[in-house]
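Page 42, continued from yesterday. The earlier attempt failed because a stray header line got pasted into the input along with the sequence. Redoing it now with the clean sequence only.
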Amino acid sequence: MSESWLNRDVKIVQLLNPNREVAGTMGLVEDPQIGEVAKIIYEYPAPDTKVSVEKSNEMGTVWFADFAREELELVPEGE
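This time it went through. Structure tokens are written below.
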């Protein structure tokens, strides 16, 4: 079993599916970009390695999308 990434901050390091489905707050929605930091809010059950990630700000959700773990890297806690 792999380490849980739930509620951890991650940085996008690659986009294997640049045309992925993205949701968010109306008027704020943007496509995810390499280098952005966001939070893991759901881990799909094994053997799936996908996670749901959300980037938000004080106005709402900028984007919400599914990623493969290999597209992301964990941000060290406290950064």
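Notes: The first strand starts at residue 9 and ends at 12.
Reminder to self: strip header lines before submitting.
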